[in-house]
From TrEMBL:
The organism's place on the tree of life at top rank: Eukaryota
Domain spans labelled UFSP1/2/DUB catalytic: 435-619
Chain segments carrying region Disordered: 201-230
GO CC terms, sorted: endoplasmic reticulum; nucleus
GO molecular function: deUFMylase activity
Protein name, as recorded: Ufm1-specific protease 2
Residue ranges with Polar residues bias: 219-230
One example of a Gene Ontology biological process annotation: proteolysis
Amino acid sequence: MDVLLVEAFSGAIEQIKSFNFAKTLVLIGSSCDEGKEKILSCSQLGEGRDLSEEAIIINSFLPAGVKVCGLFLPQSSATPLSSYVMEMITGEIAKKLFPSGRVVLLFTNEEDERLEEKAELYELETGQRRSCDLSIVSDSISWEQSVLIFRIRSEVSMKCAYKDKSELPNVFLLQYNFLKNQLQSPTTLYHIQQTSILIGSQPNTSSSSSSSSSSSSSNNATVTGPLSPSNRIQDVLQHLQDEEEDDGFGVAGGKKKKKTKLDGQVLDVKILFKTGSGLTAEEDNHIPVVLYNDHKSEMHHLAMNLPLDVVVMASASSPVSHLASLFIEGVCRQLRAMEICIARHFEKHNICKPEAHHFKPMGLQHLLTVIYPSGVSDQDLETTRQSLHQQFILPQDRPLLRRLNTYMFPEEKKQQVYLTNTHVGLPPSGVPEGKQSIVQGNYTYHHYMQDRFNDDQWGCAYRSLQTLCSWFKLQGYMDFSIPSHKEIQQALVDVGDKQAKFVGSRQWIGSIEVSTVLNQLLEVTSKIIFVPNGEELAMKGRELAAHFQVQGTPVMIGGGVYAHTILGVDFNEKTGELKFLILDPHYTGGEDIKTIQDKGWCGWKGVDFWDKTAYYNLCLPQRPIEL
């Protein structure tokens, strides 16, 4: 389908702005069947890297369905393209960089340093450039609402033999090619869990003269089950079936629960390998054979199960038949990344099992998947992370790609003891023309009566401190368990702030003690703001907004009254109108997000929320500068 519109998310534009519109960047995006090309983010070109390998390297970190799709050029569209750019968009290199056959080009308006109002599309086959409408889309409109996310998790076996370490890179490459051929052959099927839908690739030759009525093929893909290849991918949701539940008499109900909305759910996919009769010799990889080698020297044998964990982000409006190529593309990308990971770390760490970790740094509309070797610490991988931060134009002053930053999928969140990010989904604050500045990243909600511990009426500051600690944990700064009340008390005793009898007591703590514990347990410093009364908090809008924009950490507020956690502010600089996003630790109920939001335990509060007669101390943790 012809592209009629290029949509660029504001996060991608901010990445371009960070270089003052003065650097050539790779555009990362996705196509959809509505005549749109979506620009999701940008990447830098690798220094000194072969251009023909550039797309392979960038794509290895992207979900299938997301790809290198174009270039931002620091010039006007009227300026002739440089020989460097022409090298990228013509010939064999262009086919590797832009396999879709077209290149989106964005240009700079050189007069006032902004994007030109029009994009261009360059067709590789004809060499023609044509103008196309360009629209900037707010990051608040999530691209995920128009895609269906699939997660392929399976183990594939890798077995090889080598005589000398120097042979390993070639041996790994051969194994990669073998597994790639196996996973894209017609003998491999992809089963969408909780459905009877099987997706596979079409054989090169139609050797079978008969086929089941429930199996059909299109575009080199086979679709078995209740859907035809021409159905839309979003139609898969109508055939999801909940796991069968026993009714108490050993009989499962197996009722279907139809879901038609794209609500961020992730569909699991398993890889199935066909075996047995009816396969050609080339197709059946499971027939036992005897291998003989005549090497007089000892051969080394390596056997490893590779834990594939592949994300596919598919346009919901695309035909189901497109899933076959997306699934195959995803697993082949990850196999290649795993092969590179094993070879790269072999010399220093011997054979390390590659593990896929998914990340979603703030500002990106898509996931990044990074393969890390098991058993190698985050500290030893700092150089790798630094390179990735530079490549994908991520902030250089905070950890975003440590293992602790791993993205938590919806089903994984449901298994958590504590609720995460309870402010998400709240209605607007109501401040006219206000600017929201809120906590950056993730935290968990800690409140009275959790952990089977009764701290009602005295433990609110402890719970607020636990929420602050959870932020540092979930942002990847350190790996530790959230401190209990007793551990918090012991930390204050250890620094000489309290006497030994304080441990196990029900004594309150305040903002100063919270700051002391953060420094003692996490080595985090804090800024303390003293406010003589609640009315004076109305004057702190600008200062708090700056904190959330720069530091991004939750704020504990205590003093002469009960403690709370401030998660953000909505502030109108012209009128001074201000509201606070408050997380209240005094809640004593269960982990029910609807109750917590509807009853105001997490919500926007006006200045009148604070006691006019009480003083307040605010503890503003300062984020460490590190990767």
